[in-house]
Amino acid sequence: MSELQLQMNFAPSSRGNRFRDILNSGEFMLLVENSSPGRDNDPAAAAEKLAALEKEVLAIQDLPAALAITDGWNHVESWRAAEYVAALSPENRDRHLVYVSGRNTDEAELNALTHLACDAGIKNLVAVSGDAVRGESIRDTRKRCFTESVRILDFWQQRRDEQLLCGCVVNPFQYSSYSLLGQYCKLVRKINTGAQVIVTQAGWDMLKLQTLRWYLSIRGLYIPTIARLLLLTPERVEKILAGNYPGVNISPDFRKILEKELRFSLNQFEAAQWRRLELQAAGCKFLGYSGIQLSGVDNHHKLAIAAERIGAALREFSSFEQWLEEYNSYLARAEMAPFTGSFYLFDRTLRRSYPEHAPRMTPLGEPQVSGGEKFRYRLRHFFFPHADRQDASARRLLKVLFCGCRGCNHCRLPLCEYVCPDQCPKRLANGPCGGIRPDGGCELGGGECIHRRVMRLAHWQGEITGLEDRILPPGV
Ligand code: SF4
Ligand code: SF4
Fold first, then answer.
1. pTM assigned to the model
2. Is residue 449 within 8 Å of residue 430, measured between CB atoms?
3. At 404, phi and psi to the nearest 5?
């Protein structure tokens, strides 16, 4: 048991679930993101800092505000968010959102963290599979345990705890048809496994944020959605460009605009970022988001400015059209797509806030499957048509030869278009992680994300919609 846990006041709030109440009320909310600190930090000092931040966040007047506490993704050894919440005031723990990352988390650890959070009165948990450790090779990543977000949600669903509100994340900033549909397919699997709120990856492409809302709407999935927005600093821009923020991307055109803003002065750069944030926050409200999760506000001064500017921006625009005019003159100057020929699911986004009729989806065109891939698919289908119902060791040698089998205990080849899910360095079986590159490349390099390949083959086989009904078990 950690020092933070020992300090925990286990008296839960008796005030219901105020985060859920805010979502249900339709009020636009602000979540201030804070990551759990590395274990080398003094726990008492970290707890004091979090308690002070909580006080400031709860004192925000203009809109309902709370904290989103994430597992420290950039430290290998960090306090878990579920431990860190010990520093929050017991009477307000039902207001906040707490993330549980599947990285380095086996079932026993997940059980312990869930109990810890729930016993402390946390009622809102978000499942993420977790990022790879920066600088680690594919081989080292394979040695780590990643419990997939879908499995975490499934675990929470088994608890049958009506007080618990479970959430998930999605990366809508995908620019190839198959990587975008892979994200959406996984999102539907998460919703089918109990996700009741969605938080997006951070990004600046409002077309993609609207596409997600439209997609959920035409699918009849009326799930509250929160847009994660990231306040940029020159250092943060550099880190994103160096690949230190998995799944977050800056397009070449946007990069040029940021460089231009920086050329004048740091003050000018900061002013431009605040205006960008204001416009994004106000836009999210018009696009039907329930709130924003603001990342990158790392001191009290910035938090005070953020609260004031976001509150003012929400009052500034009285209609979607008025907002759109300002957005077009300020933000739309930058092409947010990272490459030419980028895929957009709908072609008339950002002309109106909601689709009057079901919008037409951009056709996928001919399946992008090579002759070699078709041959391998048929070969695998011939040899392993029922592998998911047989002992995983059956025909192992053939699986190694034809599928790159890594020897798991539960073969899922027929459920995965005969692509071995254990080829994913994180061994995720139910879809791409949030760190996937915008063109569908693996977060860790080494070529295409295997789940993009699964989507391509599913398209060829006419099985894309059937995929989301399958929840794949882990291989162990
Ligand atoms: S899913 Fe992959 S690793 Fe597991 S038995 Fe099948 S081929 Fe082997
Ligand atoms: S293969 Fe896909 S899901 Fe697996 S780590 Fe790479 S990008 Fe993530």
1. 0.94
2. no
3. 65, 35
**CB 452 less than 6 A from any atom of ligand 2:** no
pLDDT at 8: 39
What is the total residue count of the chain? 476
Decide: 150 and 189 in contact? Cβ < 8 Å.
yes
Ranking 10-14, 26-30, 146-150, 316-320 by mean pLDDT, the lowest is 10-14
Ligand 1 centroid from CA 385, angstroms: 13
- In the reported structure, the alpha carbon of residue 397 is separated from the centroid of ligand 1 by a whole-number distance in angstroms of 11
CA of 419 to the centre of ligand 1 (A): 9
pLDDT for 73 beyond 80 = no
Using an 8 Å Cβ cutoff, are 228 and 292 in contact?
A: yes
Q: What is the DSSP letter of 132?
A: P
> Could you report the per-residue pLDDT of 467-476, keeping only the tens digit for each?
999 999 998 8
DSSP 200: E
Would you identify the CATH topology of the domain 3-330? TIM Barrel (3.20.20)
Encoded tokens for 297: 């506000």
Q: Could you give the residue range(s) of every CATH 3.20.20.220 domain in the chain?
A: 3-330
Comparing C-alpha atoms, which of 123, 118, 121, 203 is closest to residue 163?
123
The partner residues of 169 in beta bridges, in order of sequence, read 199
Residues with CB under 6 A from ligand 1: 387, 392, 399, 403, 405-408, 411-413, 420-422, 475
**Above 50 in pLDDT, residue 2?**
no
Q: Classify 449 as helix, strand or coil.
A: coil
Task: Name the maximum alpha-carbon separation found in the chain.
Answer: 66
Average pLDDT over residues 296-325: 95
Q: Say if strands 29-35 and 124-128 run parallel, antiparallel, or are unpaired.
A: unpaired
More confident residue, 218 or 1: 218
- Asked if 250 and 240 touch (Cβ cutoff 8 Å), the reply is yes
Q: Residue 294 has which token pair? A: 């603001």
Q: How far, in Å, is the centroid of ligand 1 from the Cα of 393?
A: 9
3-state secondary structure of 35: strand
Q: Which residue is closest in CA terms to ligand 1's atom 6?
A: 411
Q: Which atom of ligand 2 is nearest to the CA of 444?
A: 6
Please tell me if the CB atom of residue 150 comes closer than 6 angstroms to any atom of ligand 2.
no
Q: Which long-range contacts (CB under 8 A, 24 or more apart) does 80-84 make?
A: 80/36, 80/113, 81/35, 81/36, 82/113, 82/114, 82/116, 82/117, 82/122, 83/2, 83/4, 83/5, 83/36, 83/113, 83/116, 84/4, 84/36, 84/37, 84/46, 84/47, 84/50
3-state SS class at 34: strand
How high is the mean pLDDT of the chain? Answer: 92
In the numeric block, which tokens belong to residue 56?
A: 């400031």
CA-to-CA separations, 98 to 80, 94, 251, 450, in angstroms, rounded: 10, 10, 30, 29
pLDDT, tens only, 409-424 = 999 999 999 999 999 9
